[in-house]
Amino acid sequence: MPKGVVEKKVEQSSEFTPEQFAELDAAIESFRGKSGSTIRTLSKAQEIFGYLPKEVQSIVAKGLGIPMSEIYGIATFYSFFSLVPKGKHTISSCQGTACYVRGGKQVMDELKNLLGIDVGGTTADRQFSLDSVRCVGACALAPVVRIDDDVYRQMSPKKLKPIIAKYSDSAEGE
Ligand code: FES
């Protein structure tokens, strides 16, 4: 087997399929040399893989002929790019003014505590990602937590555990 093939296989984790890498190669080919090629390729890569793992950044860098540092700089500058896998469910705690002054910070602290992650993180079992949002338009019933498309109003740290439990895989299978 040629050396290059072995190296490529070692580089690519088993987490992803050959089809995903083929799709990425096609995206690189189609965007190379065009304006905004880096952002467009990274956007497509995130669509394919769900986030931008290092191995994907490396393939994009090589494919477009630009330094890894540039890829990393762009991937970390724009908030819509994620360097970590997203969880099945996204929990967003509102930290807008109305929510914050009515206990939003305590709610966020408890979410971090219950999930064992920080804002922007994902639990090891990839069930939950934690985000902070500014205002979801429900200030009258602050503080607010959103889980996927569901909005929970007048939250308190004590209310969180049973609500999160409803979204865990074991509860969904019941
Ligand atoms: S500040 Fe949280 S909903 Fe408006």
Walk me through the topology:
Elements: H1 3-11, H2 18-31, H3 37-49, H4 54-64, H5 68-77, E1 89-94, H6 97-115, E2 128-133, E3 145-147, E4 150-152, H7 157-167, H8 169-172
Parallel strand pairs: 1-2
Antiparallel strand pairs: 1-3, 3-4
Helix pairs in contact: 2-3, 2-4, 3-4, 4-5, 6-7
The chain binds FE2/S2 (inorganic) cluster (FES).
Task: Tell me about this structure.
The chain has two domains: 11-77; 89-172, Glutaredoxin (3-Layer(aba) Sandwich). 52% of the residues lie in helices and 10% in strands. Strand 1, helix 6 and strand 2 form a beta-alpha-beta unit. A four-stranded mixed beta sheet has the order 2-1-3-4, covered by helices on one side. Helix 2 (18-31) packs parallel to helix 4 (54-64), helix 3 (37-49) packs antiparallel against helix 4 (54-64) and helix 4 crosses helix 5 (68-77). The protein is of the alpha+beta class. It has helices at 3-11, 18-31, 37-49, 54-64, 68-77, 97-115, 157-167, 169-172; strands at 89-94, 128-133, 145-147, 150-152. The chain binds FE2/S2 (inorganic) cluster.
